UniProtKB/TrEMBL annotation:
Gene3D superfamilies: P1 Nuclease. InterPro entries: PLipase_C/P1_nuclease_dom_sf (IPR008947), S1/P1nuclease (IPR003154). This is Endonuclease. Keywords: Disulfide bond, Endonuclease, Glycoprotein, Hydrolase, Metal-binding, Nuclease, Signal. The keyword Cell inner membrane does not apply. Residues 1-21 form the signal peptide. CDD domains: S1-P1_nuclease. It comes from the Bacteria. The keyword Signal applies.
Amino acid sequence: MNRSLLVSALALALAAPSAHAWSRQGHQLVGELAERQLSPAALAQVRDLLADEAVPSLAAVATWADEIRAEENELGKLSRRWHYVNIPGKDCDYAPARDCADGECIIGAINAQRAVLADASRPRQERTNALKFLVHFVGDAHQPMHAGYPHDRGGNNYQLNYRGKGAPEGEGTNLHGTWDYWLLQSAGLDNAAYADKLSAMPPLQADPVPALGNAAQAWTIESCRLIHSESIYPPGHRITDAYLDQHRPLAEQRIRLAGQRLAGLLEEALAP
């Protein structure tokens, strides 16, 4: 994706309704990083499926799943539970019947939408929607609080007061919102600069897509385990810039992993 197209995608996103996961910037970074890693053949199929979009790029459609949820249209209501999974306990012992009944969670959604995208016999609009869902949900799966605990709704009910450069007078937020928004926003970079920065980092270790049906579960449980191992819950319900500086590298790594894994998933789903 060239720089001018990325800037256009950013402008389009800024005009969209407020998102609720990784913020617009985080989701667009996942889409942009994935697109930079696609083969020419896979990229051509992506462009074809998104040909009717205002900007036919993964970055530009990365917040669509949140936008339709905010509008509460039929598909938005249907997909409301697809953005997360709540897993009780620090061991992240995922039980599908308990945590994802009838496939109604992010793990089931990724698997189902990947199957739709891979089926060339499905109607074109269904495959386009599946592509847009996957761009978003793979990003969500790498945000630790989207695999958080049910007792506080993935940190949504864990209230925080943030006082720092972004909110010198103090601002009420919650742990989920901090990971969605403040960690990346506080870096002070626009999308183009942030994507270039993340792309310039040393390559991540090779991470082949696990067997079909296992990738989404593996990525989501990985996110869940980070909540405990990385001490994501701050004591005292207060955070400063020190918390953001401490955890931003992890957030950036999750964005990079999501982009890399999304690219791999799309390559596999769109293969001839």
